[in-house]
Amino acid sequence: MKIVGIAACTSGIAHTYIAKEKLTKAAESMGHKVKIETQGTVGAENKLTDEDIKNADVAIIAADIKISGKERFKNKKVLEVPTNIVIKSPKALIKKVEELLNEKE
Amino acid sequence: MDLSKVIKEERINLNLNAKSKDEVINELTDLLVETGSVANKEGFLKDVYAREEIGETGMGGYIAIPHGKSAHVAKTAIAIGRTYEEIEWGSLDGKGVKLIILFAVPEEDKTSVHVKLLAQVASILGDEEKCQELLTVKSTEDILEIMSNNKKGKEVC
Fold first, then answer.
1. A87 and B59 in contact by Cβ < 8 A?
2. Average pLDDT, chain B
3. Does the active-site annotation cover A69?
4. Which residue range is the domain that position A80 belongs to?
5. Per-residue burial over B81-105, b = 16 or more CB atoms within 10 Å of its CB, e = otherwise
6. Which of B62, B118, B134 should one mutate to test binding to chain A, selecting the residue with the greatest count of A CBs within 10 A?
């Protein structure tokens, strides 16, 4: 499946980027396509395009704070979790996303 | 990418004497003070502990990433320490930590290249293999190499 997502944490220094990396690695290792935008101290990086979002099967928002541009996902299946969940068990999270999408079908 | 701006050998101590979380933070902060990154130790410590209040900085897998975004930081920097014994920390996996990476970021350093470098370091920590290497390599040079090379690290035993 195609996954898009956002990572953002309280101080925007560390957890945001660790979460992005973990999510990306876990998703790729399980055969998915993934792109994660980071909203950290330096602003948004690896920004999701409209095309990215349109093509995605699911959006994961891994954030401890309010993110900007959430309305971009209004027609998507969205899973929201704190960054801690991603950092602690990224593969379990992806698995949960897989189950969620399968249920729907 | 020039990580040497934020990570220096003098800010790495693989033989921390600390036996508690407070002692670890104190020892690493001393490294930051000695190398000119932190201008006011007491003030910086207060900000680091304020961040600790918000949530666990132990990310699991024996690694913790305390950080202070603080007006008492003169230069963005990272101090890295490793202990022999597990230190009780407050981690996502409930385990102790052995590798502690203390980030010091000035309050106003919002868009600088340094913060981007920190982000690079943080993404290295999202790589389990790299984390494993950071926990086991023998020398500060090895740590520097893993940190500054965002590709697959060299084989370690």
1. yes
2. 88
3. no
4. 2-104
5. bbbeeebebebbeeebbbbbbbbbb
6. B118
